[in-house]
Design goal:
three-stranded antiparallel β-sheet; binds 2'-deoxycytidine-5'-monophosphate; alpha/beta; 8 strands; about 220 residues
């Protein structure tokens, strides 16, 4: 059983790369951002202010999140895979992610998911807090300009209206909130390997990370 933690700022292409790394290694991919997004969606659906920590924590007992093996996100049985990517969720998720009660609730589930199977888990605090004993820790970064360009093109391809400038501002805002929150902020674990993907394609990023993993834990699936 091997655990791989991939952390890094928003829109660095982590989930696409982490998914590819998991596929290459035959591991299960766990997207922890989808869990924070699901809690956000649930609060919005129930008209609870995402900045009101106490009211949000009251909702947790009614929330069941399942990440299916085929990549779907289920919130109380409802497929929310696409809805958790909408702008309304993006605008509010940093407040939810800064809520200590929410983090404790989700971290417990994340640790349980990593107990019995080999996994690649991506997020912000996986190597520092969720799985401090992960076999390999990657800190994936890319310049703000490059991340904004990628997210902008992704949004446009999905038919979402946006400007490059607005996307860049939003990335900077999320970087700031994620790395300045009090509890389990985004930061590089001491023993993490930093991978800058600014000039790499998705496939090159996957290859680079798989190489690092193989060099650290030995050859897998070969
Ligand atoms: O990776 P993402 O963009 O789907 O993450 C959504 C939000 O959740 C983002 O604001 C950071 C936060 N997050 C977090 O605080 N800790 C994690 N382990 C994963 C995501």
């Amino acid at each position: 059983m091997i655990t791989i933690a991939i952390d890094g700022p928003s829109a660095a292409g982590k989930s696409t790369v982490a998914k590819g790394v998991a596929r290459e290694l035959g591991f299960v991919y766990i997207d922890t951002g989808a869990m924070y997004r699901s809690v956000t969606l649930y609060a919005l659906r129930n008209n609870v202010d995402c900045r009101n920590d106490e009211e949000v924590v009251k909702l947790l007992k009614d929330i069941n999140i399942v990440l299916s093996v085929d990549g779907k996100v289920l919130l109380n049985g409802d497929d929310v895979t696409y809805e958790i990517r909408t702008q309304k969720v993006v605008d509010n998720v940093s407040f939810i992610a800064a809520n200590k009660g929410v983090r404790l609730f989700l971290v417990e589930q994340q640790r349980n998911m990593a107990k019995d199977i080999s996994i690649v888990m991506d997020g912000r605090d996986i190597g520092t807090y969720v799985l401090p004993n992960a076999d390999v820790k990657i800190f994936q970064v890319a310049s703000v300009k490059e991340r904004a360009k990628r997210r902008y093109l992704e949004n446009i391809s999905k038919g979402m209206e946006c400007t490059l400038e607005a996307v860049e501002k939003d990335i900077e805002r999320r970087d700031y909130i994620d790395s300045h929150r009090e509890f389990a902020p985004l930061c590089k674990a001491k023993d993490a390997v930093e991978v800058d993907t600014s000039t790499l394609t998705i496939e090159e990023s996957i290859d680079a990370i798989v190489k690092i993993i193989k060099s650290k834990v030995g050859i897998i699936n070969e």
